[in-house]
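B., you asked whether I could sanity-check this one before it goes into the benchmark set. Here's the sequence:
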Amino acid sequence: MRYRIPWAKPDISEGERDSVRAVMESNWLSMGPRTREFERIASGSVGRKFGIAVSNGTAALDVALKSLGVKSGDEVIVPAMAYIATGACVLYQHAKPVFVDIEPRTFNIDVKLVEKSITARTKAIVFMDFGGHPADLVRLRDIARKCSLFLIEDAAQSLGAERDGIRCGSAGHIDTTSFHLAKIVTTVEGGMVFTDEHDLATRARMIRNQGESGKYVHDVLGHNYRTTDINAAIGIEQFRRLEGQLAKRRRIARRYSDNLQGFADFQQVEDGVKHSWFFFLVLVEKRDQVVRALESDGIETRITYPLPLNKQKVFREFTRGEFPNAERFSRRVISLPMFPALKDEEIDQVCDVLVAAIKSARK
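And here's what the prediction gave me:
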């Protein structure tokens, strides 16, 4: 179906096109000098010493946990509501995910419950910044430090966000992001690992490239998670426009919030937070009816996400306890169109249809 107002739309400028053409006309298309430049720019943007570019955000999470030595028998704390990769990276290590419920206002991992979930087998905490709202970075750091755990921030949705002066992508021992086509910064597909620790960066580079320490010398078991200079060329130009793109997302979020106040529940921005607004999320009753009304008017939405991780089949054997906030969120959430080129009149159209659908659903 072709939507009048899509859920997302990549913003590719002439700068990206020129940069890709320059790479194509060079004699180096695979991972090389543009990738190194991209790593420098991206890591600098989040305030990290090292950036390791990989093929996608899921690969970045896998590399991060492998670099930390997470293994079979370890437990890793994960939010019950997250994108599948945030939990799947734990299973890739043959470790056990331990789910923790989310906060009802920000939809992030509930830090009050994290410490209660720590056992003698806990090795790490992996968390994400849901929709671009940073989790409680200071308290998560404090818990990890107090309990001698590794902390890994999945900043796939939060590039450009901050909380209490901490930039997303810099909160943990090793952090990751995604450059998927719909993300705040895109390379079409791609991801990156961030760290300040030289040894972790060295290990991450080896794992990315078949475990190589030198050409055809393999010290560890690795993967082919390499990216290309073509992808990197796009990313370089995207980062040059990042602040302008974030400003547009924040303007769109303000207009949504103003239009929908009193009609729908949505994510509450806490003090000290600079939100990046990858998602604009609303919580409604009779969601399927509301989504059908939007779709019938040519407005695309997404359900992010329809199941908590503990309800996904791949995780069911690891589930213990109840996660009422994640459950309720998954039944009510709708992700509205959000991309920098979204026009005011389009935002207003989305809101008009949404409000009418919510009113109809209440009858």
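One thing to flag: The chain has two domains: 14-240, 242-362. Otherwise nothing jumped out at me.
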